[in-house]
Amino acid sequence: MTVVGPFGLSVRDQVLDTDIRAGLADIEEGLLEATKSDVPFITEAAQHLVRAGGKRFRPLLVLLAAQFGDPHAPGVVPSAVVVELTHLATLYHDDVMDEAAVRRGVPSVNARWDNSVAVLTGDFLFARASHILADLGPEAVRIQAEAFERLVTGQILETAGPQAGRDPIDHYLDVLAGKTGSLMAVAGRFGAMMSGADESVIDTMTQFGERIGVAFQLADDVLDIASDSRESGKTPGTDLREGVATLPVLHLRARCASTDDHRLIELLDSDLSDELRHAEALRLLRAHPALEQARRDTIRYADAARSALAPLPPGPVKQALEGLCDAVVFRAG
């Protein structure tokens, strides 16, 4: 039984499968409702990426975490909508910063309209998320605010780069913990918290979310190099073209002093908006050991996420969470 097709997660328990499917349908309805506006153009722009689909990884994590309490508690679905709206808003802003042309297999909002529309629509989504969040109580507002601060800090640290003497790979992993891990941690925490699960479960799911979030982003780094647009839903080598030093590139640069990678380094230091240079850089990096090292790091973080689940009781929910770890690794395979 498949819960999330794009992620390939299978749930063997019929009751859990049915419950998760119903929850995801309710979340989808909530996302469409939350992105409606009295201004038709705003609705069109705000629903652009919602209707394009997506893995809904964060809402799925909320629903699975909620299984350790009352999965039908009134705050579960709204909290999942808040987390996904926040994630979607960051995508609108990221595409502006990256000058991305494609997102989830469709033109990005900045490409279809312009940067101003993308930025303002992202702000609109943040506002709608905050509106829903206000009904979930002050503790939820505080948790979301702290996570959002970490997310923005991670983005700023990525832009600023590592301080002198800091290992660029360590710096990058800290960036990912902020940019991606923070919101994944909130997904796990909200699901458990809103369902009334024990405090120990809330802590476990928060830690799991953080670790699986970093693994998830590392898998994206590998996919940006290794996949084609049909697999990833965006243009291959987007980060490469924009000069974003993702983990495969960082591993390459760490090796360059002792290996004969001069041509590849030369390409990475050049203007990769040139299609021929970009294609050559992609081809060389796909064959480079640095890409395999990034895959190994993805597996290491997925394994760390799996180990965080140790305190949870055995059963179909824990198996499904372990399946998320397998699915992340599969994406980077």
Give the helix/strand class: mainly alpha
- The radius of gyration is 20 Å
- Sketch the major β-sheet: 2 strands, antiparallel
The CATH class, by name, is Mainly Alpha
Whole-number count of domains = 1
Number of strands: 4
What value does the average pLDDT take?
A: 87
Following the backbone from N to C, one meets helices and strands in this order, namely: EEHHHHHEEHHHHHHHHHHHH
Helix content: over 70%
Relative strand content: under 5%
What sort of overall outline do the alpha carbons produce when their principal axes are compared?
Answer: globular
Give the uncertain stretches in residue-range form: 1-6
Query: Cα distance, first to last residue?
Result: 22 Å
Provide a short characterization of the protein structure.
With 333 residues, this protein is mainly alpha-helical.
Polypeptide structure, described:
The structure is a single chain. The chain is 72% helix and 3% strand. It is an all-alpha fold and 333 residues long.
Structural key phrases:
Polyprenyl_synt_CS, Farnesyl Diphosphate Synthase, 17 helices, Polyprenyl_synt, disordered N terminus, 3% strand, two-stranded antiparallel sheet, 333 residues, mainly alpha, magnesium
Please describe the topology of this protein.
Elements: E1 2-4, E2 9-10, H1 14-34, H2 40-46, H3 48-51, H4 57-66, H5 76-98, E3 102-103, E4 106-107, H6 109-112, H7 115-134, H8 138-160, H9 168-194, H10 199-226, H11 229-232, H12 238-241, H13 247-255, H14 262-268, H15 275-286, H16 289-308, H17 316-331
Antiparallel strand pairs: 1-2, 3-4
Helix pairs in contact: 1-4, 1-5, 4-5, 4-9, 5-7, 5-9, 8-9, 9-10, 10-16, 10-17, 13-16, 16-17
